[in-house]
Amino acid sequence: MPEGRIVKALAGFYYVSYEGNVFQCRGRGNFRKRKISPLVGDWVEFESSSPTDGYILDIFERKNELVRPPIANIDQALLVFSAVEPAFAPVLLDRFLVHIEHNYIHPVIVVSKMDLISSEKERLKIEDYISLYRNIGYEVIPTSTKTEADLTHFHELFKDKVTVFAGQSGVGKSSLLNLINPELKLETNEISSHLGRGKHTTRHVELIPFGEGLVADTPGFSSLDFNGIGQETLSNLFPEMERRLDGCKFRGCSHTSEPKCAVKEALAAAEIDQERYDHYVSFLQEIKDQKRRY
Fold first, then answer.
1. Fewer beta carbons below 10 Å: N end or C end of the chain?
2. In CATH, what number is assigned to the domain containing residue 34?
3. Are 12 and 24 in contact (CB under 8 A)?
């Protein structure tokens, strides 16, 4: 049986890409009994008598999946945050990073609109953030509204990968995609405008060919709560903390009030950024409050 990838799900049909062609398929009836729902990005086994009449027979194991947007087997997330207009939002970026790390997705941070920074003070502040995240180990790519971005590097980034975009509204996601691939001709602030969707049309996730890879056509993450992330695992999702966990005296250390905590010692020595640590404490409290509610 042929094996392909679901590139679109719409109105009960799954569109499977196989050897350059797309086959419209339905899911097997027993998927519902087994409480399995095919997702865009799934690798599947299918059979088809024609391009519009096929059935998905089996879904292969996923390496990751997101609930909102509903998509599986993502390789990387481009987290696009603007330097200005809107202002750089480190707490939101850290929230995104926690979710990306939790789902074993490789994050790439893009800082857009660098050329629109109006003051030297603001430029130094943004450059400090760029240095901070790079020192933690994240890839950070500063871009401008012009053609300053290293487009060759972007094309390499997308090669053979499934990429999802995320970030604040108005940060320049569509502008960046247009810059990399002018044929898309996307309207600003509307990544999915090339599909001709009206305001009241049902939204769906689709993988579109982009360079030598695939980009998820989706409005991005619509849910950023911490469901599924435990208090004891949150620090694992902060790489600069995760590297120090073995140095804590107590197993299951929350890195807040315990003695002989390697994370707190690194914080005192300015080896861990205070703002990032504050975000960690805030997220930890949110998880505790969430647990109490349920």
1. C
2. 2.40.50.140
3. no
